[in-house]
Design brief:
- By secondary structure, the chain is of the alpha/beta class.
- It folds into four domains: about 15-160; about 210-245; about 255-405, Alpha-Beta Plaits (2-Layer Sandwich); about 420-655, EAL domain (TIM Barrel, Alpha-Beta Barrel).
- About 55% of the residues lie in helices and about 15% in strands.
- The strands form four sheets. The protein has an eight-stranded mixed barrel with strand order 12-13-15-16-17-18-19-20, surrounded by four helices. Strands 6-7-5-10-11 form a five-stranded mixed β-sheet, with helices on both faces.
- Strand 10, helix 10 (about 380-395) and strand 11 form a beta-alpha-beta unit.
- Helix 11 crosses helix 12 (about 465-475).
- It is rod-shaped, with a radius of gyration of 59 Å.
- The chain binds ligand C2E and calcium ion (2 copies).
- Ligand C2E binds near residues 452, 453 and 469.
Length: about 675
Amino acid sequence: MVNRLIKLLKLSTSRYILTSIVLVHIILLPFLYTTMMYAYKNNTYEQFETQTRDIAGLLTDVLSTKYLLDDFKSISETLDSAILSGIISYIDIIGREDFIITPTITTSLTENDFNENSQVSNFRESIFFIKIPFYFKQPDNIAYHLRIGFDKSHLNDQFILARNSIILILSAYFLIIITIIAINTRYISTPLRHLRKYSNEIASGNTDIELQTHSQLTDVRDLTFDLEKMRLALVNLALRMQHKATHDDLTGLPNRFLFTDRLQSTVTLSARNQQSFAILLIDLDRFKEINDTLGHNIGDEVLKVLSERMCHGIRESDTLARIGGDEFAVILIDVGLIVAEKIARKIIQLIEPSFYINGHSLKLGASIGISIFPEDGSNPGTLMQKADISMYHAKNNNLNITSYHPDLDSDHYENLVLSHNLKSSIDNGEFEARFQPKVNIKNKRLSGCELLLRWEHPDMGTILPDKFIPLAEKENMIGELTRWTIKHHATQFKKLISIYPDFKISINISPNDLLDFSLLNFINEIITSDNLPASNLYIEVTENAIMKNPVRSAEILNRFCDLGIKISVDDFGTGYSSLAYLQKFPISELKIDKSFISNLTKDSNNYPIVSATITMAHDLGISVVAEGVEQESTLKLLRNLDCDYAQGYYYGQPRHFDEIFMWIENYNKNKAN
Ligand code: C2E
Ligand code: CA
Ligand code: CA
């Protein structure tokens, strides 16, 4: 109720206190006045009555010393003197029957006016009549009554005087109280008003004003102190929020938002100072694999470690930001191409050394694209686009660093065109398989072939899978491409198998394909409809593809196994899984990645790894293929290590279907010799 009233009146504290006090006094003052007047009147009446009784008593005492008959004159004089005293307006003595003694002085009242009153206050007239019995000093003992009328009119004057005094006192009291309260409430309201002003300033964003008060009131001081604490907490919170909004939670580096902001400022500043600056766009290589195979926690740790390392490669005035999952960007102020490339190399060197996280030994690389202001662009958008094109060029061509060059635009454009053409190219049958032989090292017999796809583009010539497979994966076309490849080459498989019944055909399955149940069903249909023996087929999947979703992979690989198709683990050694873990999957064959084989010598670091892999795989009943065998010496080493199969340029480049028959015939002929 009070709250509603406050709201209604929109009262400030001081006005609220004042109004309350005025309201209380509006009720209190009339009550005080009435009570005081009542007490005063009662008291006055009481005094007056006592006085009249005293006078009457005195008179009766005097009269009772008189003999009625002897002292008649003296009695009259006594009554006269009573009248003359001024406060008595009427007096007489009455006895039995009509006996009456009146004063000799005439009064305005007659005996008929007498009307006895019991209380002074009870009558309204200005005369207070009383009647007192007494005895004269004579032997007959007859009672007489003295009747007196006291003039009461002076009491009213007293009352008026008293009323004025009380009103005066109460008014003075009221004024004093209001003044004191008004002064005191100013002590509260003034600092409160200041605090309110400060609070409004803070609310409008001006958080730098320190809250202070000169008030001596502890409540106000405490409130000021609390508000100041709140202001500091707000300032702190705002700083934290600002940091959070502009920085990456994980690495603490500036985020894309802040990077864009700084890039804009750097462009403006560099244009004004006629300076150049560089943007480095850094994309970690194989980070996605780590994330997919070892989990996000380890992925996060990797990002933290590498961000810290990269920080050491740049100056404090430069900006290193995390602008995407595994994408970083650097602004190098007042730097040209030569220095930018030098710093990029330094960053690569900082990233590359291997490190340990949770018992995993990890090693990553990076692809860096560089663009320079003002040569490559005069605004942030163009500069970022050029750095992006350069970075993709570095990535697609296994280069660590690429600086922007106009030729790259055509490369980028080419990718765009290829992505766009993919669908129609599949329909037009622009893809074609090459066959690469897989040879049994021990008995030198041809075991089978791996199918490697080529895109025979009408304008661009032969395009290699390293270029179009990532595009097909990105465009979600890989499933269609894989289906097309299998269906389109099924007749060729059948022809090979019909001539060489043990001939094995290996088909590459991309990570996206592996988890697709419909592809499994599709292959099953082809096997059935084309009457292809499943036992002659291998599917090649990378260990990282399996580790992407181990549970689902196990289920699908088992289904392939049930069909009679064998599983080969491709590029073994480049991922992060262990053979012990892969043992859980129905694996028949392991293909050691060509990076371990191409330069294999007895002294190379890879030798013990290759040796141990072969031994362990054999222990698990898995056969081993060495990819990328280019020299006879390598083949000899592998034979000594008891490796089962070899594949590589040593036996020649992957060949057209028509050429492979000739090659097989020649090989078998030479082998016999
Ligand atoms: P991969 O499965 O590891 O295939 C082996 C790659 O190494 C082939 O490259 C092959 O030409 C090359 N190679 C063979 N012997 C040697 C050698 O002695 N030295 C060197 N340096 N390289 C050798 P290619 O044909 O360019 O294929 C690259 C990758 O593209 C393949 O790697 C495979 O992952 C993928 N790929 C090829 N065809 C298909 C396909 O039909 N479907 C899918 N999903 N991926 C495919
Ligand atoms: Ca392969
Ligand atoms: Ca491989």
